[in-house]
Amino acid sequence: MANKANISANSSSCAALLVLAISFIGCFAEERDIYLVLIEGEPLAFHGSDDKRRFDLNSDAYKGQAKRLMDSHDRILQSTLEIGSYNKLYSFKYTVNGFAVHLTPTQAKKLENAPQVKLVERDRRAKLMTSYTPQFLGLPQGVWTQRGGDKNAGEGIVIGFVDTGINPSHPSFANYNPFEPNISHFSGDCETGPRFPLSSCNGKIVSARFFSAGAQAVATLNTSVDFLSPFDAVGHGSHVASTAAGNAGVPVVVDGFFYGLASGMAPCARIAVYKAMYPTVGTLADVIAAIDQATMDGVDILTLSIGPDEPPRDTITMLGIFDVLMLFARRAGVFVVQAAGNQGPAPSTVVSYSPWAVAAAACTTDRIYPGSLLLGNGLKLGGVGLSGPTCGRPLFLSKLVLARDVILRVNGTFPRTPQYIEECQYPEAFEPSLAQGSVVICTFSDGFYNQTSTLTAVINTAITLGFMGFILIANSHYGDFVAEPIPFAVPGILIPKVSTSEIILQYYEQQTHRDERGVAIKFNAQAGIGEGRVASFEGRAPIVSRFSSRGPDFTDLSRNPTDVLKPDVTAPGHQIWAAWSPVSALDPMLTGCNFALLSGTSMATPHIAGIAALIKQHNPSWTPTMIASAISSTATKYDNYGQLIMAEGFEITSTYNSTHFDFGSGLVSATRALDPGLVLSVEFEDYISFLCSLADTDPVSIKAATGIWCNHSLSHPANLNLPSVTVSAVAKSLILQRSLKNVGNKTETYLTSVVHPNGTTVSLYPPWFTIAPQGTQDLAIQFNVTQAIGDFSFGEIVLTGSLNHTVRIPLSVKPVSIF
Ligand SMILES: *[C@@H]1O[C@H](CO)[C@@H](O)[C@H](O)[C@H]1NC(C)=O
Ligand SMILES: *[C@@H]1O[C@H](CO)[C@@H](O)[C@H](O)[C@H]1NC(C)=O
Ligand SMILES: *[C@@H]1O[C@H](CO)[C@@H](O)[C@H](O)[C@H]1NC(C)=O
Ligand SMILES: *[C@@H]1O[C@H](CO)[C@@H](O)[C@H](O)[C@H]1NC(C)=O
Ligand SMILES: *[C@@H]1O[C@H](CO)[C@@H](O)[C@H](O)[C@H]1NC(C)=O
Ligand SMILES: *[C@@H]1O[C@H](CO)[C@@H](O)[C@H](O)[C@H]1NC(C)=O
Ligand SMILES: *[C@@H]1O[C@H](CO)[C@@H](O)[C@H](O)[C@H]1NC(C)=O
Ligand SMILES: *[C@@H]1O[C@H](CO)[C@@H](O)[C@H](O)[C@H]1NC(C)=O
Ligand SMILES: *[C@@H]1O[C@H](CO)[C@@H](O)[C@H](O)[C@H]1NC(C)=O
Ligand SMILES: *[C@@H]1O[C@H](CO)[C@@H](O)[C@H](O)[C@H]1NC(C)=O
């Protein structure tokens, strides 16, 4: 006995040495990262039965089952890896069964082969889907773009936000409603911490949690910005939440100027906060833990203005863990809306892939902020920037100087010559007596091009030296730049067009005297900056924003198109005013502000979330797919001129007729979506059959990701009952089916009509039908190819009801051959 113990002690110390040696080597060769792991066995939400019956979270049965799942995760790790060599961050128990663990790639490989492990995926990190940081100016071409209510509206509905947290003291989130909402279906919590006292959960904010194990595993958090509480130090989460569910009629005031009133789409909906993104880092592990918890808490709607910014590496797009989690959230009855991405306008840039989540594209509205610059010769030029007029007076003119002409010279040389003096980044580079009281022309150059120069620095220079105002002009060497209106603390204007910039320079040179060395000695030019903070409502709108990611949807890294329409629908996402966090950890320019004007599909997403809340309130029994159908089938493809909605192209002023790959079904309409007439709905099992019918998936990976075998598959993936038809290859002829349900309360007769996609003829059977309330009707759609076209072409099916309902089903097909 003693002998045996001895031997085993010896052998185990040898083993320990060996492990030490390996991990020692590992230290140099391998970087640890977070891995997301799915495990065999049903998660709690679906344990033992298929119905959506909710657990009593406080019951012993629930707690026992939760513990069993957690223990099983620990057992798998312990039996596969050396204890102490890994760090489990989360057990996911409710929506999916799995965990997040911090370890080396070698350990991850081992885990992949462990029994019960279905799927191992490296954490791809998560990003905020805001397109522009006011800090930086971008150019339209080049690397960047190629990379790419009423009083109770929404009452009783809980919208969950997985984001950067919330600013609880913002007036958009004050609780004005004296009534306790009936949200018995929801059970949240109020986690407190820095800047987030218990009183933050005030009834408007019904729950607030934060998830940080992933962030803490991969980064050293900075306690002065990465608050370990639901408090939003960035502003993004507050912006998104107030757009969906912010109180109505909140005055937007920035730098003392009143811009108007802000309201959320569903101002009486309740807010559940799931903070998972930090200024320093955002991990998928924290995001997934947040979504798992939100589903368990029972949110009605989940808003994801964040997500992985690239497709998964080792699996098809729809079977990445993020997408699988959304599938199960939908199975549990949650309506999930996600940002389409900000990598447009190149095709196949969407970062939303799956038919079970609604992807929001972004468009402009008809509100613009026309800035103006007045020159001493009477010329008035247009520009961009939310600033007051120079000297507080609209037509005030003062001396105009070019930055290069007012640099500090000592004994004829520069005491300090920082790079890109013309970009006004350094106050010490200028001669204070010449700069003070002048309107100074700064010029776009390498610093802005390389994203090292900032507008904050320009403004800082202007304040330090007492500029009367600044003008940032374009440079013909780089071409026009993209400018967004941002509130400036001093009068200023951005002139993004080279042609306008040249007019300014020409006038300036005419009025400026130079000595024989070219040094400016007398400045006679004058300029004034006009009021730029007053909105004007004009022009064609909406227009799909340049940055908004485009379809077609695709299945893998090689971007093979798949038979699903993405984006699904379009909502305003350009220059949206909403709540902000004065800490503004990622945008020094907006520090101290309570509101911000932002652009991105991040801003379009909460518009859809808010409208979904209104639909759910009016139709409490509707499933997420019915809500999604109502939103898509009632969207419009026409703009305020009554013409097809345009989309911005690569060139700065170019636009083209939108296709479904730009705007999905079109611009969302809240009023029509509340009363769609017919809906197309999909059950959970249909999604599995759909996955099983995709050409490039195998049943084993579907079983691994979803836990379900492919016992059924659709005869064609495009037969999934979506409110759109997308077919990436039609040869000769194809018949597809759709099933429609009357959700109106009257019998209605519908006439069908078709706009044929180029290269096809489309026939519908039956051509007309009468449908009773709650009745269903099948519709057969036959495509016959008349001409092979190597690309997608677009059309639509329109069902026009006798009671004025209109149901539109977009068609996107690639007719590949007539044989
Ligand atoms: C709250 O709503 C639930 C169903 O959503 C209902 O069963 C319950 O009676 C309601 N409670 C109150 C106080 O209205
Ligand atoms: C932490 O953040 C603060 C505020 O942004 C910053 O001033 C400080 O340098 C940061 N500290 C570290 C260690 O990055
Ligand atoms: C400028 O030149 C004068 C005379 O050469 C010299 O005395 C003075 O120190 C110089 N000033 C600086 C700041 O270099
Ligand atoms: C900045 O961009 C220019 C191109 O205009 C390039 O030549 C230069 O090397 C870049 N500088 C840095 C520091 O990246
Ligand atoms: C764009 O669509 C309009 C219909 O709204 C059509 O008249 C026009 O010809 C189209 N333009 C192009 C370039 O296809
Ligand atoms: C589905 O198929 C799997 C494997 O072929 C089989 O084990 C399972 O019993 C089937 N399930 C049903 C419901 O038919
Ligand atoms: C029927 O539906 C319409 C529109 O949805 C609604 O205004 C009306 O109140 C409903 N009528 C009944 C009897 O439910
Ligand atoms: C349809 O396709 C034909 C042949 O490719 C092309 O000439 C025509 O312009 C297309 N029409 C539209 C509306 O795209
Ligand atoms: C489409 O093709 C099918 C089979 O080839 C044929 O029966 C049908 O008549 C065609 N429909 C039209 C509208 O051409
Ligand atoms: C349908 O719309 C037309 C025109 O807007 C209107 O005259 C008619 O009364 C409407 N019919 C119903 C049933 O609402």
From TrEMBL:
Record SUPFAM superfamilies: Protease propeptides/inhibitors, Subtilisin-like
GO terms under biological process: proteolysis
Domain of life: Eukaryota
Signal peptide: 1-29
Compartments (UniProt record): Secreted
GO cellular component: extracellular region
All residue ranges annotated as the Peptidase S8/S53 domain in the record: 154-638
Keyword tags: Glycoprotein, Hydrolase, Protease, Serine protease, Signal
Alphabetized GO MF terms: serine-type endopeptidase activity
Residue span(s) of domain Inhibitor I9: 66-128
Gene3D superfamilies, alphabetized: 2.60.40.2310, 3.50.30.30, Peptidase S8 propeptide/proteinase inhibitor I9, Peptidase S8/S53 domain
UniProt domain Subtilisin-like protease fibronectin type-III: residue ranges: 719-813
Active site, per annotation: D163, H236, S602
Similarity remark: Belongs to the peptidase S8 family.
Protein name according to UniProt: Peptidase S8/S53 domain-containing protein
Organism taxonomic ancestry: Eukaryota, Viridiplantae, Streptophyta, Embryophyta, Tracheophyta
